[in-house]
Specification:
The chain is built from eight helices and eleven strands. By secondary structure, it is of the alpha+beta class.
């Protein structure tokens, strides 16, 4: 029944919004008129015309309460994904109200109508408040989330230490705990999270992936951040022969020369005599890159570490042992 509401045209959306606005205006005007005329009846100044008018106004209020309640229920189904059966229950209650109006009396009919409308109002308030509570809870963690690329659902952590400390504070005070997953290890307790603070490399950036439980963030997975088109660099990490290290530098050079990357790539090399050389991979530094490749001995062992943020990727190469 409500499937087509998700693909309304602009005209239908305007009508869908306009009808409730008109209805609310009519209800307000009718309510004011009702109370004015009702006060006349109380003061026994009512004539037959006034009584007919008040009955007409009551019918208008009654009809618009039903219309607005049904539209409100439809909006709740779309916005908050409440079960569609609620709109059938609402319609059935209004049908019962109409039948009671003709068979028994208006008072009983109005009570049934008011109960149905009140239930919809209570559900709307409950969902709105619940959404705000969930939004505020999640925002304390999501404030550290930054989009890697516009239009892509990929995020990195802007402040890893701040995120972990926020999780620690939450887990101290809140019965709803958040778990951080890092290198396939799970950190939930304060002691575990404090250990993670000491273990994780704060010089690196990390991808952030969240999982939810009843819309609340339940787990936050942190993975080493690596720029687009640079993930193959991670294959070279660890103890490597010089020949492999040379290949890594050649790979970095081909990516830069081929305009595959938009970040700066630097090679930071520490030799066997503890002398550090930093070379930016660019066409302007071609000679320095060639000199660096020649300095690395193919049979020697080197320790390779990749360190990336959103603007720079450093290839850190440290001499390990002679071959």
């Amino acid at each position: 029944m409500l499937q087509n509401l998700y693909s309304l045209t602009s005209g239908e959306i305007i009508a869908f919004v306009l009808v409730p606005v008109i209805g609310i205006i009519i209800l307000l005007i009718s309510a004011i008129a009702f109370f004015i005329l009702h006060s006349k009846i109380k003061n026994k100044n009512a004539d037959e015309v006034s009584i007919k008018k008040i009955n007409k106004i009551q019918r208008i209020i009654y009809i618009w309460i039903m219309i607005l309640s049904i539209i409100g229920n439809m909006i709740l189904i779309i916005e908050y994904k409440i079960p569609e059966i609620t709109i059938y229950i609402t319609i059935i209650l209004f049908i019962i109200s109409i039948i009671v109006r003709f068979i028994i009396n208006k008072k009983a009919s109005n009570i049934i109508c008011a109960i149905s409308a009140s239930c919809i109002f209570i559900v709307a308030i409950w969902n709105f408040v619940s959404d705000k509570i969930i939004e505020n809870y999640n925002e304390q963690f999501l404030q550290y989330r930054q989009a890697v690329y516009n239009g892509f659902d990929i995020y990195y952590v802007s402040d890893t230490e701040g995120l972990i400390e926020t999780v620690i504070n939450n887990n101290k005070k809140n019965s709803r705990k958040v778990t951080i997953i890092y290198k396939e290890n799970y950190y939930t307790s304060v002691e575990e999270l404090n250990r993670l603070l000491n273990e994780i490399d704060m010089n690196n950036y990390y991808f952030m992936t969240n999982k939810y439980d009843y819309d609340y963030i339940k787990t936050i997975k942190l993975q080493r951040y690596i720029g687009m088109y640079l993930s193959d660099f991670l294959d070279y990490e660890g103890n490597q022969k010089g020949s492999v290290v040379k290949s890594l530098i050649q790979l970095a050079r081909s990516k830069v020369y081929g305009y595959e990357v938009e970040v700066d790539i630097n090679v930071i090399y520490t030799s066997d005599v503890n002398q550090t050389t930093t070379v930016n991979i660019s066409k302007e530094n071609s000679e320095q890159i060639i000199d660096l490749i020649e300095e690395i001995e193919s049979l020697n062992m080197y320790d390779v570490y990749i360190q990336c943020d959103t603007e720079t990727c450093n290839i850190i190469i440290n001499f390990e042992s002679y071959g």
